[in-house]
Amino acid sequence: MMNLTPLQSRIMREIVSYVRREQLSLGTHVAESQLAKALNSSRSPVKFALGFLAQQGMFTHDKNRGFFLAQNACDLESLAEQLSAKSEDPIYQQLAELRLTNKLPEMFTEIELMRELGVSRPILRNVLTRIQQEGWLEFRAGQGWRTLPAIDSIDAYRESYALRIMIEPAGLLSEAFDIDRKRLEECRKQHLYIAQGGFLTMTPLELFEANSAFHELLALCSGNRFLLQTVRRLNQLRRLVEYRQAQKKRSQRQSHSEEHVEIIDLLLEGDRLGAANKLRLHIERAKADKVQSDIFSLPPANEKEMQLP
Q: Beta strands of the chain (E only): which ranges?
């Protein structure tokens, strides 16, 4: 596959996920406008993604009629895995692994990192800029780069869940809460698909993104922009940890999605108090499941460590 931008990779993954979630059959017409609306995107990146996926054999394209599925949804697992594997820059993955295992120095310069990783400054700068936006590195003029607090230990993991337990259920009881019924129903359909077997074939990245989207949608409905900002930031930080967990604990994703469906049902019924209580129990259960993980175990003793001056 050609090199793709993060936006292009994301839109393509979401199109494949959408087709698989909806269980669309061979020959189904997929309209650009319909996809753009479903993915909350503009038509331009969707059009590019459809063209690229047509080259991969997922769609056929008729100049006058548009795009049609050339494969059944159940036959797209391999393509989903390819896009998932292509979604992350290897330099980003390497830095994330160093940060999670506490082997990234507290302070370092770009020149030191360029030498250690064997990459050019423009490539490294793009990755560092992305990481700065995600909030686990910051640039200090005249000093270089400094690591910021991240979810890199059991204690930090526990604290992140404790914060979520405090704020996410409260958002459902906010005076500014405004239910987005259409988006909640679409989210329900996705998590019902996951719970009914989709978790067995979805990639770890698809599973994590579905989980994050659920929690961010509830935060959006709260009507509190700062709650939404906080939940998004926590999702960015826990992404480093939970993407790796999703590869090992698929069965948890089934039960989590079942609970997501129950929470959405309560909201659609108008029972915000019941939904808030269920959400609190849901996050507490996730906390109990995950903070006992060995995800932060030290790597083998012979694994190369980063040696910066």
A: 29-30, 59-62, 66-69, 107-108, 137-140, 144-147
